[in-house]
Each structure stands twice: as C-alpha cells, then as structure tokens.
Amino acid sequence: MLAAVLKDFNNLVLEEVPTPEPGLGEVVVRIRSCGFCATDYKAIRGIRRNVRFPLIAGHEPAGVVAAVGAGVRHFREGDEVICQPSGFCGACRHCKAGDTHYCEHAFTTGGDGPEDVRPGAFAEYMKTAETCLFHKPAGVSFDAAALTEPLSGAWKGVIQHSEMRLGDDVVVIGVGGIGLLCLMVARAAGAGRLIAIDPSAHARRNALALGATHAIDPAGEDPRRRVYEILPGGPDLVVEAAGPIEAVRLAAALRRRGTRWNVFGITTHETFELDGGLTHFLEGRMDASFGTTPLAMQKAIRLMETGLVDPVKIISHRFALRDIHQAVELMGQPGRNKVIINP
Prior knowledge:
This protein is 28% helix and 25% strand. It has helices spanning 38-45, 93-96, 142-145, 148-161, 177-188, 201-209, 223-230, 245-253, 276-282, 294-305, 324-331, and strands at residues 2-8, 11-16, 26-36, 61-68, 80-83, 86-87, 107-109, 116-118, 125-129, 133-135, 170-173, 194-197, 214-216, 237-240, 260-263, 285-288, 315-320, 338-342. Helix 4 (148-161) packs across helix 5 and helix 4 packs across helix 10. The longest helix has 14 residues, at 148-161.
C-alpha cells in the first residue's frame, strides 16, 4: 500500500509498505478521509520532538472495514467506520473509571502521547483495535467523520469539563480548527454572547460565519478592555484554544468572580503566574482537557448526525495522499483552515 512515512524531521517519503493484517480483536480499515492535525505538522517539521522514526502519522481517520481479525464481533468487511486514535486496555483503574485517555497501557495510531505509537492513517490502510471503532452514520460524510476526534475533544472540553450552560457568555481565544469546533459546540449548546479572539482576520471571519457574535483582533486593540465593553459583567466561560502561553495569560486576565476557564490549547511546557489571593477571592474554576474518550466520540457523532454541528464547514483544503507534500506546505501558511487527506 502507499503510505507517507516520516523518516526524520523534514523527511516525509511516499513509499510502498506492506498492507497491515489484522490480529486477534483487530480490524484493518481502508482510509477514505483523514484530518491533518497541527500536531502531525509539528512532528513532520520537528517542532515537536517526541517522535520515533519511522512514523506514519495521521490520527483523524474514517474509512471502510477491509479485513477483520479473529474475535471481532461488532464489525464486518464493508462497514463504514470512524476511528478513535487512542486505544486503551479497558482493565486498568483509569479505564474502569471511564477515563480511558489516562489508560496505563494506552496506544495511539498516528498520534502522540503514549509510548506505544502505531502506524496511522496517512496511508491507504490502517490497523487498529475493534474497541477503537464506531459505526459511521449513513448521513455523515467521510470528510465530516474524519473530524469526529477533534469535535469530540471540543465537546469534552467545553461541555463535559467546563460544564457550559444555556445562555452562558463564552470567549474562545484562538479560532483555528479546534477553536472553531469549540465555538460551534458552544453555539449549539446555547451560548449567549460568543466572542472569538484571534489576530488572524481570516480566522475572525470564519468565526463570525460560524456563529460568533463578536470577533476581536488582539493585535489591534486591548482584548480585555474590548471583552468587558461587550460583556460588562465579564464572561461566564473562557476557552483558551490557541496554544501560545500569551493566550493562557489572556484567559487568566479575563476572569471575573465565578468565571470558568479552560486551558485547552497549550501543550508546551511554559509557565504563567497567578495572584493567589485574587484567584482565591474570584472563586473561579480552571479546567483543562486533552484527548478523547468513547463517550466524547459518541457525543460528537450525535452532534453530526443530528445536524447540530457540521464540521465540514471548517474544511478549507483537500489533498490526495500522493499530494501530501503540498498539504504539508499549506499547513505552514496563513489563510488555510482544516486540511483533509483523501487516500
């Protein structure tokens, strides 16, 4: 099969590799669509260094079951499926508590986090565990289905962890792909005023088109002052979905008494300071959220199936697998949004 194999940083090679064969409890999926995540781009460019070579990246796939191994009970050849990248044992204390993304024996297909990183979906076929698959609803396209994992992360952060409530005034800092999904989830959940903050005019236009009531350019005006002009009483919830430490500092600065704030986007090990007494008397709540779980995946599928969130609206470009080097170049450019690989 054809696969994009990362041999070293900045050395992504298209080559023929053996097609995987399923073992006990495993399924091989013919990939139809795979989202190109920023973490994939960072691995290719060497921006993140926790990479072992060779690597087949791509952890946001959907496709069709091509082969099933012994013991597989719930899927058969020809089934259209959505793949969760994070695998779990189901038996450790975290799995038994429902926190499968904390699994002590976790693996990932094409992603990062666990020690056990398996070949991902920048390929024609991918092998994974039956427990990582979900049936794709007939009315959901493969491109939309490929965004189930990031959409599930947005649901998990905004709804499950930060407990957004109907009518909440919400601020989303950073409205690239994942920030837009957070914004769309908040809109579907009944946000009152919904403010997007991003220095990119392209990103701000996207946010307004997808349900933001206001958009702020932090490079052109004081974002805290502008937020409090729009929301004199301050925000109920602030979601940091940008990544840079400056976005985390802004989230902290936007708090008023009772504000919930979610450190969602940053993954680098950088520090910020809090006034202890002020934090005490503000009586807010800080959350964070990473990864996904089977519950979050199912919620994301329901959001798509019922039409509450259409993630296709954030897709800006599609590339065939053979053109993945063009996709890599585009990932480093402004003016793009979610990129999809269609093997």
